[in-house]
Amino acid sequence: MKLIVLFGVFALAAARRDHDHDHERRPRPPAIVVKHRHDVGANETYEFKFAFLGMEALNETKVWLYKVDRNSEPHFVEAEFEIYTETLTNETDVKEWLDNFKEKADKEREDRDSDREEGDREKDGREHKRRPRPPHPRPHPKFTNAVVGEITIESASCDDMGPYFLHYGEIEEREEREDDDEDRRKHRRPHPRPPRGAFYISVEDCQSIDF
User: Fold this and answer.
1) What pLDDT does residue 22 have?
2) pTM tops 0.85, yes or no
3) Which distant-in-sequence residues (6+ apart) come within 8 Å of 171 by Cβ?
């Protein structure tokens, strides 16, 4: 239930930045690749990778990282983690980065599944077979440009715990209009999905953040 409400906060943040008052067609934003959840030990230095992917040249200076904070206005503030970025400008390099990212993600998933199967086996004494992952419904586009990077959390603390999202370009504050709120109410999903680039950092021994 907390995740659903949390995603609702994400959706409001996304609606605020993406809503076009003049209803003009906008350029398609780059795709974003990042692991959706990161479990970090207390006082641990933790690093993880991300990427912005597109068909046209991308600018490293437009990479922004925000933390969602319901107690601030607007509901997102710039995160203070160290961020390293690098620009890739050909399809081969982009594909190699994506393959490495996917290989690591698959290995982590297999380890989690193995641990879960072992726990189930100890619990009921039966062998549990893992279901194969279904094939992706459509092939991924062949991206030719990317900004790839790494985020570093130094000595993680409870203050670092919470929801974040990566964004291409700085988010500028706008005055909310009544018709904007009405439009969002009409088109809001019953179970909103997190926007592109959203992820959650959980820190060991820290209390979950209620939203």
Assistant:
1) 45
2) no
3) 17, 64, 66, 74, 76
